[in-house]
Amino acid sequence: MGSTPVYTPFSVLRWSKRWSGEYPRAFALPKLIVFAGFLSGAILLLLVLKSPHPSQRPFGAKSWGGKRDAREAGLFAEGGIIIGKIGGEILAYDGPHHLLLTGGTRSGKTRGSVIPTLLAAPHSILALDLKGELHSGDARVDFPGTAGWRAKLGPVIRFAPTDEVSDRLNLLDTIRPGAQEVRDVQNLVELIADPYGDGRFQEFWDRAAKQILAGLIIHVVYAEPLPSKTLARVFELLARFDDTVKLMEATLHRTNETSGEPETHPEVKRAAHSYAAYHEKLRAGIKATAESYLGLFADPLVRQNTATSTFRISDLMCADEPVTLYLCWPPNDAKRVKPLIRLVFGAVLRVLMEHQERATDGREKKHNLLLLLDEFPQLGKLDVFEQSMGAMAGYGLSAYLVTQSLHQVTQAYGRYHTILDNCQIVTSFAATDVETAETVSKLAGDIFETRPQETWSGKRQLFGLDHRAITYREERRPLLLPSEVRRLSEREELIFVTGAKPLRAEKLRYDEEPIFRARLLPAPEEPRRRALPSPWSGISSLGFAQRRAPDTPPGRDGAIVRALSRKAPLRSRTAADQQQGDLLSALEASQPDGHSEPDHSATASTTAPAPSRFALRPASDDSANEAGS
To answer: Among 233, 292, 295, which Cα is nearest to 577's?
Structure first.
């Protein structure tokens, strides 16, 4: 071009071939430039051909919460229920809602949550202690129990009905004399008649047995001397119930509020008449059904630990300091003792959930109560518990339920239970069963994400590539698949809080945390508490109603009553049995020929001395007997 020569790009190749030997340094740089160009092109081509789809995040990465979400959910309380750890900080909840923890056996539920909760919760606690280790510890792992620390907060009560050393509770002391007595007895009988919570109910036999039990319990609290106002005595009287019915019908339990005359309690009379109306074979079946409910009270230790009360149920919320009650029942006695533990648990709900500000005995509530129920499906189905869960918060109660799997809950409460519905916080370890895995997957929910998708048209070659396009589509899938729930690591847990993002957290171990190790104190010596006064102290029957034969002197019935009233106070089972026999003999002797049924007439009411209460013992001994008991 003009005076300036122009060469084709490939001329350098001819020059290099001809003169590179003579002028190597002149051709070194061009060769390097050409080589670098070819190398760069090759690399670029490789990237084009092998380029992946646009980078993607793990599915649902934005759906999991962090420390900020945990704080907003109220999981950084100063104390309360210990849930786990996140970001190195301990998660604790101290609110009114119920919680549930599910994890397989030996997965760390007790080590990571139950024990730390007993060492951190500032309120009163009722702890279901199946093995007794929560209270007294386990020497095999150098664990001294939690009673030592709980004793620093307030009184510690250990109710172990099959242990020689135990606090005592007479469930008949939860029955209030007066207008509420029938209601309290019927509620108690409902639990007695469902000893295992297994849903087995025989319409006729159970209904009839409940009726005679309600009447017999009312008769016992009115007519028996104070040491015998127990469920064990009810069990004894069932053994010879045909004779007991005669006494029930003849006993004047109280004064009628309208007429002012002594009367047989209407519920006792109804139960006795109903039983007497059945055929003899039916009576035997009804009696056997009722006896089967209370067979546990044949155990002398159970009789001993339910004869009196060394604590009141109202202490849990009404004492000056927070109270901790451990309900202990060893695994080898689990099935046998379950009916009694169910009765105690039902009584707790009945006493503390009638009034928001006070217990049924009138004491004002001062503390909240946490029901810490480790392995709670072992109690069987408790209808009163399931029905009460929605209202507990209003009465100052909350529940922390611990189970090995949700399948256990379904087995106890049925497919359509509401236990999980009432738990606002659910913690899950790695699932060991399909039902738990699927339920936890549903708790995590489904998510929608917009994901890029790369499409090509033409051939993936440098000169044959026609078109490359990226489109976006919305995908839906579970945040957690059931298989992922089962594959959780040994130290990982999932936390679901209503109204918050789910959390992936770390399990806590109390023995690895200095704050909890410092609270591992030896269990204190169990104090020998004295029996508390019974609400039925000083309440006794007024005598017997007798039918007078036409030729019977007017004073004879009253003489029988006065003679019986001079009997010594009852102190033993043998004495009680002997005295019942004496009473039956006296009653039979007082009946005229041809009349076997007692007559509750006004004549009998006037012959019984109304001013003195008939307690099968001198009235002057009442106070001494109560003090001695």
So the answer is: 233
Query: pLDDT digit string (tens) for 166-204?
Result: 999 999 999 999 999 999 999 999 999 988 887 676 678
C-alpha to C-alpha distance for 443 and 445, rounded to whole angstroms: 5
Task: Give the Å distances, CA to CA, from 128 to 110, 135, 443, 522.
Answer: 12, 10, 27, 20
Residue 182 lies in a domain: yes
Q: What number of other Cβ atoms are within 10 A of residue 166's Cβ?
A: 18
Could you list the residue range(s) of the whole structural domain that residue 118 is in? 64-169+309-445+480-517
Rounded Cα gap, residues 483 and 438, in angstroms? 9
The pLDDT tens digits of the residues spanning 265-309 come to 999 999 999 999 999 889 999 999 999 999 999 999 999 999 999
Q: Is the pLDDT of residue 377 over 60?
A: yes
Same domain, 375 and 484: yes
Residues 30, 34: Cα–Cα separation, whole Å = 6
Residue with tokens 């001294």: 144
- Sequence-distant (6+) residues with CB within 8 A of 223 are 247, 251, 253, 540, 541, 616
Same domain, 503 and 546: no
Q: What is the pLDDT of residues 69-118, one digit of tens each?
A: 999 999 999 999 999 999 999 999 999 999 999 999 999 999 999 999 99
H or E segment to which residue 37 belongs:
helix 24-50
Q: Provide the residue type at 311 as one letter.
A: F
Q: CATH number of the domain that 68 lies in?
A: 3.40.50.300
pTM here is 0.79
**339 with 395, same domain?**
yes
Task: Tell whether the model's pLDDT for residue 564 goes beyond 70.
Answer: no
Domain assignment present for residue 40? The answer is yes
Looking at the structure of the chain, the number of domains it has is: 3
Residue 320 — pLDDT band, cuts 50, 70, 90? very high
- Sole residue written with tokens 């239970």: 417
| CA 190 to chain centroid | 18
Residue with tokens 């976006």: 472
For residue 153, count CB atoms less than 10 angstroms from its CB and return exposed for 0-12, middle for 13-18, buried for 19 or more: middle
- In this prediction, residue 137 has a pLDDT band, given cuts at 50, 70 and 90, of very high
Counting Cβ atoms within 10 Å, is residue 240 exposed (0-12), middle (13-18) or buried (19+)?
A: middle
- Residues 507 and 109 sit within 8 Å (Cβ to Cβ): no
Same-domain pairing of 155 and 203: no
Can you give 109-140 as a three-state secondary structure string?
A: HHHHHHHHHHCCCCCEEEEEECCCHHHHCEHH
Q: Are residues 608 and 556 in the same domain?
A: yes
Find the distance separating the first CA and the last CA of the chain, reported in whole Å.
131
Size of the chain, expressed as the number of residues it contains: 629
**Can you read off the two tokens belonging to residue 440?**
């936890």
Q: Does some domain include residue 304? A: no
